[in-house]
Amino acid sequence: MSLTPFEISICGIEELAPFQTRGVTHLLSVLDPEYPEPASLGLLNPTHRLQLRFHDAIDVKPGEILVEIDHVRQVLEFGRDLPGPQGHLLVHCHAGISRSSAFTILLLAQALPDVSSADIVAEIVRVRDRAWPNLRIIELGDELLGRKGTLVAAVRARHAEYAKRVPRFVQLMKELGRDREVEGLIG
Q: How far apart (Å, rounded) are the C-alpha atoms in residues 8 and 20?
């Protein structure tokens, strides 16, 4: 059973095309700064659209643009107009794993302020079982939403659970320079 008052989908770029017939009303698109706009985005016809561009990083690295608090504010503003029961929110990033799942968590946390952070993260994992939410996005959003660290804690618990199930993912995150996300986890 879904917690959400509207349909939620999370995907990567390669999975966008089928959504042209799925009634997407709200589209949040997160791309790397240098990545060309996917042609499949032109096939979608949402009534509300927001596109952001930054790298999937959690700490400062040379040559990479980090998500900033203004990006998170833009997403939360976009989320104030989320659809009702007839709506469909699609959030995508390059792979549909990290940035997209993090922003979807924040949008759901904003829409459902009385629902626990753990339940919100569990709902996003139900929607996208490969979710590994970007910790920096969650940290910024937790602060803006006044969740007092509960979203961060719920996402850290998700990281730990996923690391136990897919230990090789810990090494991948280390190789990507996302050590802070895997500190204290297996691997």
A: 15
pLDDT at 1: 54
* β-strands 48-53, 7-12 pairing: unpaired
What is the C-alpha end-to-end distance of the chain, expressed in Å?
A: 33
The model's pTM is: 0.95
pLDDT tens-place string over residues 71-119: 999 999 999 988 778 889 999 999 999 999 999 999 999 999 999 999 9
**Integer CA distances (angstroms), 56 to 8, 64, 82, 139, in order:** 21, 9, 24, 14
Q: Which residue spans within the chain are E strands per DSSP?
A: 7-12, 26-31, 48-53, 88-93
Q: Domain ranges in the chain? A: 7-182
Secondary structure percentages of the chain, helix, strand, coil, to 5: 45, 15, 40
| 149/146 Cα distance (integer angstroms) | 8
Tens digits of residue pLDDT in 117-143: 999 999 999 999 999 999 999 999 999
Rounded-to-integer distance, Cα 43 and Cα 124, Å: 25
CA-closest candidate to residue 101, choices 90, 111, 110: 90
Cβ proximity of 102 and 138 under 8 Å = yes
The number of residues in the chain equals 187
Q: Assign a CATH topology to domain 7-182.
A: Protein-Tyrosine Phosphatase; Chain A (3.90.190)
